[in-house]
Design goal:
By secondary structure, the protein is mainly beta. About 5% of the residues lie in helices and about 45% in strands. The longest helix has 9 residues. The chain is globular. The N terminus is likely disordered.
Length: about 475
């Protein structure tokens, strides 16, 4: 579907192109949305760059202030978002060597670790406490330390529990994991690597708490191995002797790009970057059941509502936050993933031209700020900060005005008003089928018989304004 694009919005050269625009009637500041408000936007021109890529976040432990670490083609930008409606661009750490499309950032304690595919870049180390007192921003920062154990890298992963970084896609270990001890951040030390499963494009490393008792407390590396079209699961507890556990493949593979564990480490959600364009189906998220790490199995394939390519995705609680290129940020409810139920519950689309299977739009999102603000890094659109409409002040009254109970429910669902009159109610299932709808109610309480509904997730919309998720037992 062709989307309306307000090109006039791009002529702003000030830092704040727009600020706090609620999502009303599917639009916020000229961007299509569902359930997510636009808090702020900074175009790429402000950062003096032509492209953005990866991103991460840091929260200052001293005062709780939140900062965005934004990857650019020519360096890394730092943005203070402690006032989300008025973010402050503090400055940039220039690239260590040349410019490149690819840059990746992670944090450990109060330090940022930055890699790039620029030749000879190595790993930049930056003390984030420099962001506390910046006079006359934006300024140009300098790195505090440098690691030259590899020339360049596609990505970096950090297990903050152990103090180890894992650079992947380097010129070492066949492009597999390159281990670095960063427990003393300004004095990183090479600690070995793993090459048996080939080049890794991206990875996640966790201290394992999942259902496989054989690996309880172990440090588990799960690599998405790009053109190798496999997932590689490795026990990296002993850095001098990492042990391959298993590999797995799947049908219609093109480029095994990136994935993330559910918080209980049972499931792994994977995105393949080429499958949408190669095969022609809608955005596919592949779910693997890793109950037994030695014998992982494909559990479920979820297909989105557009043909856009998926890029990076992250799990936080019951939600999966997906950077979906031309389709923007998509938020999926995975609370019922065990029963093969995944449903999109919201989105914010920063790319206006289309939802095609192209590489335009959102490269990365960062959903882990305690404030619940979500950073979106758009390749050409720049920095966006969004927030769930249910969390913003303008919606608090709606959230508190209506109560939906019991939840979970068995046979009957009650919607009760604590103020506003209930004028309309609709209930839809996870595929959008309307199972109940009434309008012109003008009542303060409504009981609905749901005994015929199948067990699963449903969405109750009240007055075409507030939507609440309910579970039918």
């Amino acid at each position: 579907m062709k989307k309306n694009f307000l090109s006039v919005l791009l002529i702003f050269t000030t830092v704040f192109a727009f600020a706090q625009t609620p999502c009303n009637n599917g639009e916020a500041g000229g961007y299509e949305c569902n359930g997510y408000d636009l808090m702020a936007h900074i175009p790429l021109s402000v950062f003096n760059t032509t492209g953005a890529n990866d991103s991460w976040g840091w929260t200052d432990p001293d005062d709780g202030k939140e900062y965005v670490l934004m990857g650019l083609e020519n360096g890394t930008a730092f943005i203070d978002i402690s006032d989300p409606v008025n973010p402050i661009y503090l400055g940039k750490l220039p690239t260590a060597t040349g410019t490149t499309v690819w840059r990746d950032i992670k944090t450990y304690n109060n330090y940022a670790f930055i890699v790039s595919e620029a030749s000879g870049h190595g790993m930049q180390i930056f003390d984030l406490t420099h962001l506390r007192n910046v006079n006359n921003p934006p300024v140009t920062f300098t790195e505090d330390a440098h690691y030259s154990g590899f020339s360049d890298a596609h990505n970096i992963v950090i297990n903050e529990n152990t103090g180890y970084a894992y650079a992947v896609g380097t010129n070492t270990f066949g492009g597999g994991a390159h281990f670095v001890n960063i427990q003393d951040p300004l004095n990183p030390v090479a600690a070995g690597g793993f090459s048996a499963d080939g080049n890794t494009h991206d990875a996640q490393v966790v201290t394992y708490i999942g259902p496989d008792a054989d690996y309880a407390g172990s440090e588990i590396y799960i690599g998405s191995n790009g053109s190798g079209q496999i997932i590689s699961i490795v026990d990296v507890t002993n850095k001098s002797n990492p042990q391959g556990i298993s590999t797995l493949s799947y049908s219609n593979s093109g480029y095994t790009h990136q994935g993330w564990f559910t918080e209980d480490h049972r499931f792994f959600l994977l995105g393949d970057e080429f499958d949408e364009s190669n095969v022609g189906f809608n955005t596919r998220t592949i779910v693997f059941d890793l109950t037994d790490l030695d014998n992982p199995v494909l559990s479920y394939e979820y297909f989105g509502v557009t043909p856009a390519i998926d890029h990076n995705g992250y799990v936080k609680g019951d939600n999966y936050y997906l950077s979906n290129y031309a389709a923007g940020l998509r938020v999926l409810d995975i609370s019922d993933i065990e029963n093969d139920n995944i449903v999109e519950i919201g989105f914010f689309d920063t790319y206006q031209d289309n939802n095609d299977a192209s590489y335009n739009g959102v490269w990365n999102v960062y959903p882990y700020f305690e404030s619940e603000n979500i950073m979106i890094n758009d390749r050409s659109g720049g920095f966006f900060l969004v927030r769930s409409s249910l969390l913003n002040n303008n919606d608090f009254s709606a959230v508190n005005t209506f109560v939906v109970y019991p939840n979970p429910a068995s046979d009957e669902l009650t919607i009760k008003s604590n103020g506003d009159v209930i004028s309309s109610i609709s209930i839809v299932d996870v595929v959008g089928k309307v199972l109940f709808a009434e309008s012109d109610l003008n009542s303060e309480i409504k009981n609905i018989d749901i005994s015929s509904f199948s067990a699963g997730i449903y969405f109750v919309n009240i007055n075409n304004n507030l939507t609440k998720k309910v579970i039918k037992k």
